[in-house]
Design goal:
With 266 residues, this protein is an alpha/beta fold. The chain has 8 helices and 12 strands.
């Protein structure tokens, strides 16, 4: 059984896919064969919408989408492939994205961390966690290391940010601050990663016009105490790495997918 605190979880509009009963302060879920299983989690004035993709009651991997126009749907094909390998996942849309909606401009890196914690705590996800995180959310994943026991980080075209940008709303000088030359050098991520003892996989794009290669190398080099770390640079890909791989290099997609599966299963 997967137990979820009733104070932080509401069954979404697809509730017919989930049978449930209340016991004390928890909702006990029995997942049916229908996938995905949609959930809603209150966060401030918003409702975070996400889903569990898996046949078991304990999602094994948390998937965090990136910024811009991204949403959890961007990772459906990857999550489908993981499910085919018996790996269940949970994902949600951050405020300002996808089914969650709301104003992105008033959010921040700090808010994204808090949103993720709200989902993890509300769904009572079992630790140690494994996290797949893309672009901006790679920084969020690193910040989660300060609160949770995480056994594995899979960072896709990862971004890191100066600590000064953490609490600044996206519409109040955030962009100007992170675009200062090499602002990422003053990120608090480096010390956090230095203390990480789990497994780390970085999947980067050869022709990424968003994330400097120096950031990728610094992430890898910072994780000096990782039990295992691997960096894969996907050839002839842009920041939209999996879109490019599926369209131009299916073998490269399956190679990257194999690396992800290996890292998650160890």
């Amino acid at each position: 059984m997967h137990k979820l605190p009733t104070s932080g979880h509401r069954i979404g509009r697809h509730s017919k896919k989930i049978s449930w009963s209340t016991r004390k302060n928890y909702i006990t879920l029995k997942l049916t064969e229908d996938i995905p299983h949609v959930f809603q989690v209150p966060f401030e004035v918003h409702t975070l919408v996400g889903d569990v993709m898996g046949h078991d009651n304990f999602p094994q991997v948390l998937v965090l989408h990136g910024a811009g126009n991204s949403n959890r749907g961007r990772f459906k094909k990857l999550r489908d492939a993981l499910l085919g390998k018996g790996i269940s996942t949970v994902a949600f849309d951050f405020v300002g994205h996808g089914d969650t909606g709301g104003q992105l401009k008033s959010s921040s890196l700090k808010s994204r961390t808090r949103q993720t914690c709200r989902v993890v705590d509300s769904l009572n996800l079992q630790q140690p966690l494994a996290v797949i995180a893309a672009s901006m959310s790679a920084y969020t994943a690193v910040k989660l290391l300060e609160r949770y026991d995480i056994r594995c980080l899979v960072l896709l075209v990862p971004a890191m940010y100066t600590a000064r940008a953490y609490s600044i709303p996206f519409n109040q000088g955030f962009t100007g601050l992170i675009r200062q030359p090499q602002s990422w050098l003053t990120s608090d991520a480096w010390q956090i990663l230095a203390e990480f003892s789990g497994r780390l996989l970085i999947v980067a794009a050869e022709n990424d016009q968003v994330i400097p290669r120096d950031v990728i190398d610094r992430i890898y080099n910072a994780a000096v105490n990782a039990a295992e770390r691997k960096l894969y640079i996907a050839p002839n890909t842009s920041h939209f790495i999996f879109t490019d791989l599926r369209a131009k290099n299916p073998d490269g997609f399956y190679h990257a997918f194999g690396l992800i599966c290996h890292m998650l299963r160890e």
